[in-house]
Amino acid sequence: MTTTARPPGGLRDFYENPAVPVASGDARSRRQARMLADALRGRTGATVLDVGCGDGTAAAVAARLLPGQRIIGVDWSQDALRRAALRVGTVVRGELGGGGLPFADGSADAVLFSEVVEHLVDPDGALDELRRVLAPGGHLMLSTPNLAAWYNRALLLAGVQPVFSEVSLRGIHGRPGSEVVGHLRLYTARALREFLAASGFEVVRVAGAPFHGVPRALRPVDRLACAVPSAASILLAHARRAR
C-alpha cells in the first residue's frame, strides 16, 4: 500500500508513480477485515481510519464487513486518493510525518495499517502518531510481509535474497519476483510483537495470511502455512492502544 509518511527525494517520485502496486491481495484484506469486524462486534458508529489506503481496495473490502461503521481513507498520495475515492465514501489527505495526521487526539476507534510499515523511513514516529489518534483501548490492525515466511527461510539457506526484500528501486536483483514495491523494513512475527509493545500497544493476536504473488502450484502450501503465523507470507497483527 502507499505510505502516508511522505518519503524523501526519489522515494516520493517512486510512490507517486501509478504503475507501482498499491493493493496487497484480497485474501489478506478479507482476513484483516474479519479480525476488525470481530473486534468491533456489537458496536455501531465507530470511526475507522485506513491509514495508507492506497487505491482503497482494503477499505472497500472492510466496508462490506463493517456495516454501520464510518471508514475514512487516508493517504498522502493525490493519485492514490483519486483512485480510493471511487471505492471509499470519505478520503482525506494526510501524512504520518511532518505535522501529523489531520485528526484530533483519541478520535479514532480503529486504524487499518495495511502493508505500510515496511515502506517507512521512521516506523517509530508512525506508530506514535497512530497511537495518538486512537482512543484508549482503540484497535490497530497492522499487516506486513513476513521476513521469515516459509519460502524465505529456504531461499536464505540457498544464498538467495528473500522475497519482499529489495536492494534497489530500479529493478529486482537477486530474488524471485518481478515487481519493485519499495520495501525498506521487514519484520518477523517476534520482531513485530516486540515493536508494537515497545510503541505502547497491547498485542491481542498475530495471525497469518497468504501472498497473492506465490506461484500457483505452491499456493496450497502457502495457505497451510497461515496456521503457523511465524511462517506465513503475511503477518496480521491486532493490537490495542494501551490505556
TrEMBL record:
It comes from the Bacteria. InterPro entries: SAM-dependent_MTases_sf. Pfam families: Methyltransf_23. One of its GO terms (biological process) is methylation. Keywords: Methyltransferase, Transferase. One of its GO terms (molecular function) is methyltransferase activity. PANTHER family: TRANS-ACONITATE 2-METHYLTRANSFERASE-RELATED. This is Class I SAM-dependent methyltransferase. The lineage of its organism: Bacteria, Bacillati, Actinomycetota, Actinomycetes, Kitasatosporales.
